[in-house]
Amino acid sequence: MKQRSITVITAIIFDMDGVLADSELLHVLASQRLLERYGVTVDEAFLRRYTGMDNAVFLGDVIREFGLDAAIPELHKQRVDILVGLLREQVEPVSGMEEMVRGISDLPVKRGLASSSPRPVVMTILKKFDLFEWFDAVVTGDDVERGKPDPGIFLEAARQLGVSPADCIVVEDSKNGVAAAVAAGMDVIGFFNPNSGDQDLSRAGRVVDSLEAIPGLIRASAV
């Protein structure tokens, strides 16, 4: 576990895909199924570069790269429909997620969610895991103009929580997510999830490979 010092915090903000939900591979599958409708085949490595990023960025790139005769809103709706169906049938929590939630529930910190996924995707997962009421603020990719690595989604989460960005710590599993949190002026715990691909988490203050380690880190840093 890589370690650097973490400041005193009053709020913790979670990414969703790859941190709470083991859904990154389902995101890959949804994108592959979408592109297959247009006669395009891509491998997992191609799609991994978009982990944690806004859906519109990915769709704009594939329209240009493969010359798709479709607009971003049309592709976006199709991909969301495919992904929601996969999530309802197959998504599971990341190992240790329930234990982490229990360990954090009694700590004196506010809890936020900041996910680049569209709101229907976020709500599908939160309802399935019965987590919606656990969060004090939920911000999705539909709520901001630009997704990660832009810091806007984390800044909006801090605003809704009523805390300073400097008093927040973020849990992220992707390079783009870590970059967004750092740009927002927040501390970051990088979570290494092998299902998220080969993500560079080196800019995180600490990197852990178990969610169950996180409550102890938060407890030591909470006001």
From TrEMBL:
Gene3D superfamilies: HAD superfamily/HAD-like, Putative phosphatase, domain 2. It comes from the Bacteria. Pfam families: HAD_2. The keyword Lipid metabolism does not apply. Signal peptide: none annotated. Its cofactor is Mg(2+). One of its GO terms (molecular function) is hydrolase activity. The keyword Magnesium applies. Keywords: Carbohydrate metabolism, Hydrolase, Magnesium, Metal-binding. Belongs to the HAD-like hydrolase superfamily. CbbY/CbbZ/Gph/YieH family. This is HAD-IA family hydrolase. It comes from Breznakiella homolactica.
